[in-house]
Amino acid sequence: MKWHKTWILVGALCLSFLSYSAQNQAQAKAKAASPNNDAKITVLSPMGMPPSYQLKPMAQRPSSLDGKTVYIVDDGFVGGENLLREMAKWFNENMPKVKVEYRRKAGSFQSDDPKLFAEIKEKGDAMIMGMGH
Hints:
The protein is an alpha/beta fold. It starts with a helix and ends with a strand.
């Protein structure tokens, strides 16, 4: 029984060697048959060109948040609600003179929410928006 395993192992090694040798010969023939081994190819980047954009300055910061309304806006990124609710809780505990409004933006993170943004422009003094990565 033991010698059967040995012969099977020897046979498998011989087959793998022959297969490797045949593969190398085929590659050598293909390389020799190639008319120009120094031929160059052109490779194009699949990334494309990013669209141009115009930088916008940040909004002016208020000197103090006392008596102001701060909107904390969740864009719907998974797990973002936990962080933003903790931020609202922190404001309520540590800055009681600041009114905090927590809102969930409608739609995906890419889309506008005109109704919410109009409310913030009308009633808010500052906004913190949680953006997913």
